[in-house]
Design brief:
GO terms for molecular function: symporter activity. Pfam families: MFS_1 (PF07690). Belongs to the major facilitator superfamily. Metabolite:H+ Symporter (MHS) family (TC 2.A.1.6) family. It is found in: Cell membrane. Keywords: Cell membrane, Membrane, Symport, Transmembrane, Transmembrane helix, Transport. With about 450 residues, the chain is mainly α. The chain has one domain: MFS general substrate transporter like domains (Growth Hormone, Chain: A, Up-down Bundle), CATH 1.20.1250. The protein is built from 21 helices and no strands. The protein has helices spanning about 10-40, 40-45, 50-70, 70-85, 85-105, 110-115, 115-145, 150-160, 160-175, 180-190, 190-210, 215-220, 230-250, 250-270, 280-310, 310-325, 325-335, 335-365, 370-385, 390-400, 405-435. The chain is globular and about 65 Å long. The chain starts with 8 loop residues before the first helix and ends in a 5-residue tail after the last helix.
Length: about 450
């Protein structure tokens, strides 16, 4: 077996990318099973004494708590990552996420411990949010900072592969336990995916323990560029990049939970309660197919980006996602599984073409010594504002304005993201042009 010192740069890059991907896939699995359970189970298990529609809203509000905690996780783990390195932070976030998820699988319902059940669920969900607040940014930097300049887009795309990989695993687990009758599913079946997280976390920790520190951070530390308070420094030198990064991340965060949580709930809820009354297994199969399509398409989009540039790929993907909104909602309202699959597939191609390049795009916006904090803040603030709230807002809009109101909400998400990507690209280009004009000292 090769020691770390005998590894070639390519082997270090491969190991870093693999460690980032595996850990991120496990963390997204944990996050996605919560979203699926929020749509299918939690309203009945933890909020049984309120009306079905209100139970769904309460469940989605609990889901949002994880996103509200993400900026705190970004500040905490961003500080540690920029001060002491990326590797150990990623081990800590994976352990924290897996522990919280496993405990949710062991949590008694409202019928057993009363109001303490939803309170404990909220606390554990907040711990999940803290973990993901550091995970995504750290994994992005671990992969991209260890890659060559030409391959950073592809390395970042493989970090993004954690999202569809996690969705595939989560959907497969719920398809498996979904074969149980309703009584068994609500009693113990839904807990199985959460308890399985403990096995995945052990595997992830073993893999991540073998990953070396990122090359960029190692060089920055050797040059004594590490700052004492990265949060203060990032707002002093790059605050506009943070807020443009928030806008550029909106669709990337919102789309997954629009599809895997709100859409799942809307289509499977009975017609009497405002849903489409479709079969739960059918919709889960559609979402599984979409996750597989995303997993296949994202590396292809990254290869295209190596030829034509990451920003064009992102913008074309976003415009496609915007144009497909009306056909998508017509398909959903038809309750036709084939129509939903076809149009949602086109939406996935556009949205995930953009998503494939998002992590490497954001990482280029910040200097190395505050990069973890900057990327984590942009992603975490966006998640707290729109990602976790997407199912809650969409459900509220559906109840008050109907499906076309939700379509309008979706269009706003796409337009804000287009503006964020374009604005951040323009600002980064201007910065790089100024840097190129500054004469270097001999």
């Amino acid at each position: 077996m090769k020691t770390s010192r005998s590894l070639t740069p390519q082997q270090r890059q491969t190991r870093a990318t693999a460690g980032a991907f595996v850990g991120t896939a496990i963390e997204w699995y944990d996050f996605f099973i919560f979203g699926t359970a929020a749509a299918l189970v939690f309203g009945k298990v933890f909020y049984p004494d309120i009306a079905p529609g209100a139970g769904i809203m309460a469940s989605f509000a609990t889901f949002w708590v994880g996103f509200l905690a993400r900026p705190l996780g970004g500040v905490l783990f961003g500080h540690l990552g920029d001060r002491f390195g990326r590797k150990n932070v990623l081990v800590a976030t994976l352990f924290l996420m897996g522990s919280a998820t496993t405990l949710i699988g062991l949590l008694p319902g409202y019928a057993t411990i009363g109001v303490f059940a939803p309170v404990a669920l909220v606390v554990l969900r907040a711990l999940q949010g803290l973990a993901v607040g550091g995970e995504w940014a750290g994994a992005t930097l671990m992969a991209t900072e260890s890659a060559s300049e030409k391959k950073r887009g592809m390395a970042g795309a493989w970090v993004q592969q954690g999202s569809p990989a996690g969705a595939i695993m989560a959907t497969l687990m719920f398809l498996l336990v979904g074969t149980l009758d309703d009584a068994a599913f609500l009693s113990w079946g839904w807990r199985v995916p959460f308890l399985f997280s403990a096995v995945l976390v052990i595997v992830g920790l073993v893999i991540r323990a073998k990953v070396e520190e990122s090359a960029d951070f190692t060089e920055s530390r050797a040059a004594h560029e590490v700052v004492k308070v990265p949060l203060v420094q990032v707002f002093k030198t790059a605050s506009s990049y943070v807020w443009l990064g928030v806008a550029a991340s909106v669709l990337g965060i919102a789309i997954a939970f629009f599809n895997n949580t709100f859409l799942l709930s809307w289509t499977t809820t009975s017609v009497e309660n405002g849903g489409m009354g479709m079969n739960r297994q059918v919709i889960l199969n559609i979402l599984l197919a979409m996750a597989i399509l995303q997993f296949i398409w994202q590396p292809i989009a990254a290869k295209i980006a190596e030829r034509i540039g990451g920003v064009p790929v992102m913008l074309w993907g976003l415009f496609l996602n915007l144009l497909i909104i009306v056909p998508l909602f017509l398909a959903i309202m038809s309750a036709n599984a084939v129509a939903i699959s076809l149009v949602l597939g086109v939406s996935i191609l556009g949205g995930t073409g953009y998503y494939a390049m998002l992590s490497s795009f954001l990482s280029q916006a910040f200097p190395v010594n505050v990069r973890f904090t900057g990327v984590a803040l942009a992603n975490g603030l966006c998640a707290s504002l729109i990602g976790g709230s997407t199912p809650l807002i969409a459900q509220a809009v559906l109840g008050s304005l109907g499906p076309w109101g939700v379509a309008g909400f979706y269009a706003i998400i796409a337009l804000v993201t287009i503006g964020g990507v374009w604005g951040l690209h323009r600002k980064m280009s201007a910065r790089d042009a100024r840097a190129a004009q500054v004469p270097t000292s001999s």
